[in-house]
Amino acid sequence: MIKAALSVLLVLAAVSSTFAKYIPKTGKRIPQTLSRGWGDQLIWAQTYEEGLYWSRSRNKPLMVLFHLEDCPHSQALKKEFSENNELQRTLDEDFIVLNLVYETTDKHLSPDGQYVPRILFVDPTMTVRADINGRYSNRMYAYEPNDIKLLLSNMQKAKKLLKSEL
User: Fold this and answer.
1) CA 126, 132, 138 angle in degrees (round to 5)?
2) Is the CB of residue 65 less than 8 Å from the CB of residue 117?
3) pLDDT per residue over 64-98, tens digit each?
């Protein structure tokens, strides 16, 4: 009887793990308050300067995400962003990530204005990749929940440019 119960429990655990969120190769991490719900298993830079340092020292592109906690557009994007396993895996393995709920003084991070949500990529040479943008002409770096595939494509573009230009 005990063996049967353990077998059932093991099968349930295996089945439930296939539907779970992305877990990094290094194992489950303690959620950071810096994630603000955008990817609790990711390691987030605390400041823009720290993100630039990590980007340069690890030779990975930096993805900077601007958002507001009380913005409905930011909240809708956060839901899709945090639930997409492919996006979370790519960020964990190939990017340095930073999310900001305030504007920086670096004008390069707001090339077409200060709006949210806004996502920009910075390469390890500290160059803001203004050529990697979303689908809107009036808000070039804005993404909506249905733009996750475009965001993934832009992340791949940032990785390719990193390899071809450096």
Assistant:
1) 115
2) yes
3) 999 999 999 999 999 999 999 999 999 999 999 99
